[in-house]
């Protein structure tokens, strides 16, 4: 499915292989390969000076394929040789081979893949940060599909809800005039009611999720048929709500001698039940006028309706030609069905239009001397707003409307169906005001706006399931850290929770624990961002932890419910951090400092450890892969399809011992890049609790950092590590790790992979971060004021 | 060989999903089964709320409460009272008991879990496919999947959170019979609101696809491609309408007559209409997969004289003359009657050497396993049909050993069995029950049922 979704954009370009430039290939081979694979030596029985280039010969193309992977994954030329190719030369060779293979239907479509987030690291790190690329950065003009969160902010509250109203008559006396039936057969009885509004709709856009990249919103994702079907269903519902009102299912229950009410209004028990449906809502006057018009509504009248329709969904006014188009080609065509249906058709069309589905970043500003166009103020409003939040920058100007529900009913019901539970439209945001004041035109304006948004008062520093990420200031920033670290996926890893109740060191882990872990780490990240100093170093080394779902108190009822003080102690959330809840004083919102040898940054948070674990064990491979890709700008070959990864089961061996099988040569050529980085985390059990023993043996937490040469920075990283802190301290101080982090920041906010052309942007980000003493805010300012962000071509 | 653990691990990490288009998958499947190329496979899932009580599905002299497998013939036995309407199909029926589903959410509903065998809630998006969504992509037709639900009053599209094509992609259910009729058979209606709405949605598709084509011509290369995908969506929907027009004859011959029950205010009439439409949709071939969601906790069977809501009955409310259990029995019988008339109708249409029913599978179950407040230790089901002989479901009572006992199996094994019977085998469908993992082999289909 995803493959189908992702664009074949690069494919066409890649089909024009560098085949017609054999000189470069010859130069590459003779410079880097032929000394060992030529007339003098014929290592491995391979000669590259005479190897045929006829890819139609299966043996030949097989050999080139092997060469492709050797070069791609830095096996060749050997890292030990001094002479190493430049990144662009290497890329050119790889594209040439891929082109040849593709012509035979066997290529990997390298260029196309390079657009996907999980291949971002394929761009040569050394060149990116060497400063030798001085091209002026820009981004191609593009459409960027709305992300699910943006759609939901725009849609859910107004058009994506199911309304249900439960009324009960009879029962205990309730104070207040509204609670007495005024007329009809039940006059004088008590009436009470409860209104239910549930979000129920399908989001047309789902997230792109690749386990390695973690990035969910990438500009290369397209909307397709399944998006359209869901959009249409939603749009038809919306058109109905905006023209004839929202349907409400009303259940009236009259108490009988048999019924039990309780306090739970949604769940009546007994009584005589009547179901009915009513419509409620406020229909805009301009729509009502069109619908009430006796004959086909005239153009001028329609224009006002279209104006509002555009404002509601596209947040702009239609151009004169759009008015003609919508009136002549859609409204009039449906005029035979009546004004109401014709108007509904127009509203549906707006809500499935490409402009509603895609953010358009064309670069509508002035063209500069290099043919690049800056984003226009309107484009900037969207680009900046969606860098920080999921809500639309634009609100809706107030409009007049009339009530749909006009029946004579009990005052309580009347109030519920008219005044209460009305979804209000938001007002225009601060960026819109800036744009309208002409203060969103230049790079300096963008910088001022970015600084203003970053300086907003922090809200909700300890998120939980009731007050989640959307109520955090600038939720996209926290979202970045969730996606970069991937710790929010802890809840997706299933554990045998039922069995944990009986197992020491696992009792603290119950059904909701993994979700709580995520919020613990959210709080930690927000805490570090508040300080905004040496952010990455702190994230990777801090010994602070948060226990989000604990207020620091010990409630007697909870202790009783847990089955006594001892059980309460063992099952307490704080135990996940090896903290005895009775032996610390803790206040919600404050960090708790735990021993440095036990916790060392986000990678030792139970959330991250669980998210990168298996159902029954730790997963040193995924952990090592994560460090290789996210912190070391490296890559590991995808699992070859011929490999059946099986680690033997054992009740006596430690996981490290069980992993001995991958030291076999054919496994180790890939695993050597992962396992030594993942093994230090054996200091934790697979639900993230620190341990010193595994299967009654002292845990071996050693590992090593290797294969970091060739990046221009990072050589000093190499060597064995004794434990997690040893490893993390070394990583956290490394320029390579910092730059790798910066590359991921770029990808997340740009919605695309960096290319060599973005080199100057990355360097500026790096400089801003270093010179500000590790401020994440300064890093973001540097990115959002860069040419990569501002210019399109 | 893959080990059980590695598969469990793979299953929970969502690995191993093959990225082939449904169409290719379908072709591939046909290639593997040349003999059955002509005969389609159809799947009907009838899902009720509040649990399907195992105690009321035991034929005379048979009990599921055993530590060993119970495998008995239905022939010669009296069916339990609420299954009596299916008496004529006794030889094509299997009563399936003893499967557990503790990997699912328990309580009032397991939501996507019932058809997906994974933990889910009603408020969060699905984390994987359910069997109906999964099969709908492998047996595509004009409508890959049709979801119909008895709602309250004039509701339109509902999202009862029981069916999904995949992660984050829930399937909609139409509550309003008139709107459902418009979507399915609107092309043969020539007057009234249904015809008008059908015409309207057609004109919107035309208008917008023309707009997109215009926009596309003004875009740079790569972005053109991006719009192409969206445009293809319009073309597919327009094609669907064209296909429906081309099928006028079949549709007119088989579509149900628009009657009072479509616009009735009585919800049970709607359910009746939904079954009629589902049957017609299968007969005309406009779909191969249907899910009928009979009710939820707020539904009322006032049309049957049962005034309390499903939730109230679950909590023991009577309707004044009958006890809660009697009400539950009547609701179950009502569903079984609807299933029986669907089966009769399908059995009256010849296909291959037999009838359409021979190539259809109807599964009746609850989204909340066996009780109003369930713990999912058992998940009773009634299975009608054998998918052209792929399932050994001819007149059997099959009860697996109790939860945790040797030989116990889960609904995940059952859903896997369906994949195998459908000709799209996979190692396992859904999540394993990790609490069982070490003792019970949870991978693979139920071998007792595979033909």
Give a count of the beta strands of chain A, DSSP E runs of length 2 or more.
16
Q: State the separation between the terminal residues of chain A, measured CA to CA.
A: 31 Å
**Rg of chain B (CA only):** 22 Å
Which chain pair shows the most residues in contact? A-B, 97 and 83 residues
Across the major sheet of chain A, the strand order is 3-2-4-5
- Helix content, binned percent of chain A: 40-55%
Roughly what is the average pLDDT of chain A, rounded to an integer? Answer: 89
CATH architecture of the largest domain in chain B: 3-Layer(aba) Sandwich
Q: What is the H-and-E element order of chain B?
A: HHEEEHHEEEEEHHHHHHEEEHHEEEEEH
> CATH topology of the largest domain in chain B, what is it called?
Alkaline Phosphatase, subunit A
Spans of chain B of 5+ residues with little confidence (pLDDT < 50)? 1-31
Let me know the largest β-sheet of chain A.
4 strands, mixed
Which structural category do the helix and sheet elements of chain A fall into?
Answer: alpha+beta
Total number of helical segments of chain B? 13
Please give a structural write-up.
The complex is a heterodimer of chains A (793) and B (451). Chain A is of the alpha+beta class and 793 residues long. Chain A has a 4-stranded mixed beta sheet. A two-stranded antiparallel sheet of chain A has the order 1-7. Chain A has a two-stranded antiparallel sheet with strand order 6-9. In chain A, helix 9 packs across helix 13 (339-350) and helix 18 runs antiparallel to helix 33. Chain B folds into 2 domains: 21-182 and 262-421, Alkaline Phosphatase, subunit A, CATH 3.40.720; 190-257. In chain B, the strands form 5 sheets. In chain B, strands 2-16-3-15-14-1-9-4 form an 8-stranded mixed beta sheet, with helices on both faces. In chain B, strands 5-8 form a two-stranded antiparallel sheet. In chain B, a hairpin with a 4-residue loop joins strand 10 and strand 11 (306-309). In chain B, helix 10 (267-284) packs parallel to helix 12 (324-347). Mean pLDDT of chain B is 87; it is low at 1-31.
């Amino acid at each position: 499915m995803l493959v189908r979704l992702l664009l074949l954009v690069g494919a066409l370009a890649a089909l024009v292989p560098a085949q017609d430039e054999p000189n470069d290939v010859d130069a590459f081979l003779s410079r880097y390969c032929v000394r060992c694979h030529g007339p003098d030596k014929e290592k491995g029985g391979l000669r590259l000076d005479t190897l045929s280039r006829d890819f139609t010969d299966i043996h030949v193309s097989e050999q080139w394929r092997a060469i492709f992977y050797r070069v791609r994954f830095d096996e060749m030329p050997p890292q030990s040789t001094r002479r190493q190719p430049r990144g662009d030369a290497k890329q050119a060779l790889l594209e040439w081979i891929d082109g040849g293979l593709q012509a035979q239907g066997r290529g990997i479509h390298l260029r196309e893949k390079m657009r996907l987030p999980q291949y971002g690291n394929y761009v040569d790190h050394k060149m990116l940060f060497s400063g030798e690329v001085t091209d002026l950065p820009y981004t191609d003009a593009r459409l960027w599909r709305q992300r699910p969160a943006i759609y939901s902010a725009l849609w859910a509250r107004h058009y994506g809800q199911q309304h249900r109203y439960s009324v009960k008559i009879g029962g205990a006396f309730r104070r207040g005039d509204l609670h007495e039936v005024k007329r009809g057969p039940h006059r004088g009885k008590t009436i009470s009611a409860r209104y239910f509004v549930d979000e129920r709709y399908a989001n047309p856009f789902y997230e792109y999720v690749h386990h390695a990249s973690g990035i969910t919103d990438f500009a290369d994702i397209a909307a397709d048929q399944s998006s359209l079907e869901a959009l249409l269903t939603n749009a038809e519902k919306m058109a109905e709500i905006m023209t004839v009102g929202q349907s409400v299912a009303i259940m009236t229950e009259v108490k009988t001698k048999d019924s039990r009410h309780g306090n739970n209004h949604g769940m009546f028990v007994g009584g005589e039940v009547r179901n009915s449906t009513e419509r409620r809502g406020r229909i805009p006057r301009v729509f009502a006028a069109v619908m009430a018009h006796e004959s086909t509504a005239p153009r001028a009248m329609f224009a006002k309706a279209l104006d509002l329709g555009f404002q509601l969904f596209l947040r702009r006014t239609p151009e004169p030609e759009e008015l003609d188009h919508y009136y002549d080609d859609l409204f009039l065509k449906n005029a035979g069905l009546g004004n109401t249906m014709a108007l509904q058709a127009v509203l549906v069309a707006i809500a499935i239009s490409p402009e509603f589905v895609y953010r358009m970043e064309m670069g509508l500003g002035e063209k500069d001397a290099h043919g690049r166009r800056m984003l226009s103020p309107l484009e900037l409003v969207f680009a900046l707003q969606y860098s920080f939040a999921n809500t639309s920058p634009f609100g809706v100007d107030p409009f007049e409307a009339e009530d749909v529900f006009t029946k004579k009913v009990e005052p309580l019901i009347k109030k519920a169906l008219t005044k209460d539970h009305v979804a209000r439209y938001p007002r225009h945001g601060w960026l819109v005001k800036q744009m309208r004041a002409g203060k969103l035109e230049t790079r300096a304006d963008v910088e001022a706006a970015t600084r203003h948004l970053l300086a907003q008062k922090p809200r909700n520093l300890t998120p939980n399931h009731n007050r989640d990420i959307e109520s955090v200031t600038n939720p996209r920033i926290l979202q970045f850290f969730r996606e970069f670290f991937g710790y929010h996926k802890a809840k997706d890893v299933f554990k045998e929770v039922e069995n944990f109740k009986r197992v020491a060191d696992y009792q603290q882990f119950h059904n909701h624990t993994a979700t709580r872990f995520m919020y613990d780490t959210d709080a930690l990240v927000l805490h570090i961002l508040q300080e905004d100093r040496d952010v990455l170093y702190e994230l990777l080394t801090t010994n602070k932890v948060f226990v989000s779902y604990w207020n620091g108190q010990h409630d007697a009822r909870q202790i009783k419910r847990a089955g006594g003080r001892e059980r309460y102690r063992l099952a307490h959330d704080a135990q996940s951090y090896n903290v005895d809840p009775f032996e610390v004083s803790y206040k919600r919102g404050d960090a708790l400092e735990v021993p440095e040898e036990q916790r060392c940054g986000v990678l030792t948070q139970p959330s991250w450890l669980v998210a990168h674990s298996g159902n029954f064990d730790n997963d040193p491979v995924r952990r090592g892969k994560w460090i290789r890709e996210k912190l070391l700008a490296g890559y590991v070959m995808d699992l070859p399809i011929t490999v059946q990864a099986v680690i033997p089961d054992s009740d006596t061996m430690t996981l490290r011992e069980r992993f001995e099988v991958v030291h076999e040569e054919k496994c180790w050529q890939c695993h050597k890049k992962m396992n030594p980085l993942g093994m230090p985390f054996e200091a934790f059990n697979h639900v993230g609790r620190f341990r010193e023993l595994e299967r009654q043996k002292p845990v071996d937490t050693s590992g090593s950092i290797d294969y970091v040469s060739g990046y221009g920075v990072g050589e000093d990283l190499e060597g064995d590590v004794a434990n997690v802190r040893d490893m993390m301290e070394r990583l956290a101080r490394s320029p390579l790790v910092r730059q790798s982090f910066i590359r991921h920041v770029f990808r997340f906010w740009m919605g695309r992979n960096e290319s060599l052309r973005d080199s100057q942007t990355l360097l500026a980000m790096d400089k801003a971060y270093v010179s500000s003493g590790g401020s994440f805010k300064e890093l973001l300012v540097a990115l959002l004021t860069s040419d990569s962000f501002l210019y399109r071509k | 060989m893959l080990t059980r653990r590695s598969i469990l691990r793979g299953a929970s990490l969502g690995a191993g999903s093959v990225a082939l288009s449904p169409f290719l998958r379908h072709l591939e499947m046909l290639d593997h089964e040349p003999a059955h190329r002509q005969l389609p496979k159809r799947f009907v899932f009838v899902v009720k709320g509040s649990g399907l009580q195992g105690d009321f599905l035991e034929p005379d002299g048979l009990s599921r409460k055993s530590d060993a497998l119970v495998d008995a013939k239905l022939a010669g036995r009296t069916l339990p009272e609420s299954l009596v309407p299916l008496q004529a199909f006794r030889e094509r029926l299997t009563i399936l008991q003893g499967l557990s589903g503790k990997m699912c959410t328990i309580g009032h509903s397991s939501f996507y879990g019932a058809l997906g065998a994974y933990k889910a809630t009603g408020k969060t998006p699905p984390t994987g496919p359910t069997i109906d969504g999964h099969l709908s992509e492998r047996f595509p037709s004009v409508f890959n999947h049709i979801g119909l639900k008895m709602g309250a009053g004039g509701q339109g599209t509902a999202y009862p959170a029981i069916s999904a094509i995949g992660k984050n992609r829930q399937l909609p259910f139409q509550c309003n019979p008139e709107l459902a009729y418009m979507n399915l058979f609107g092309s043969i209606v020539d007057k009234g609101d249904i015809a008008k709405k059908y015409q309207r949605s057609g004109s919107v598709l035309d208008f917008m696809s023309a707009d997109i084509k215009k926009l596309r011509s003004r875009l740079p290369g790569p972005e053109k491609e991006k719009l192409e995908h969206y445009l293809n969506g319009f073309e597919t929907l327009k094609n669907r309408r064209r296909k429906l027009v081309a099928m006028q004859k079949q549709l007119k011959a088989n579509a149900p007559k628009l009657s009072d029950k479509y616009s009735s205010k009585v919800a049970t009439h709607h359910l009746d209409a939904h079954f009629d439409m589902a049957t017609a949709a299968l007969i005309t071939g406009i779909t191969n997969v249907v899910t009928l969601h009979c009710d939820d906790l707020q539904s009322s069977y006032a049309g049957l004289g049962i005034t309390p809501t499903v939730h109230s009955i679950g909590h023991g409310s009577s309707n004044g003359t009958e006890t809660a259990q009697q009400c539950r029995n009547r609701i179950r019988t009502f569903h079984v009657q609807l299933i029986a008339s669907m089966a009769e109708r399908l059995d009256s249409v010849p296909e291959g050497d037999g009838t359409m029913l021979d190539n259809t599978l109807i599964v009746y179950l609850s989204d909340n396993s066996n009780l109003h407040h369930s713990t999912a230790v058992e998940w009773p089901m009634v299975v009608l049909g054998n998918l052209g002989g792929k399932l050994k479901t001819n007149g059997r009572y099959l009860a697996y050993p109790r939860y945790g006992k040797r030989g116990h199996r889960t609904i995940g094994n059952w859903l896997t069995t369906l994949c195998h019977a459908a000709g799209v085998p996979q190692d396992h469908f859904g999540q394993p029950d990790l609490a069982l993992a070490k003792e019970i082999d949870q991978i693979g289909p139920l071998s007792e049922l595979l033909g």
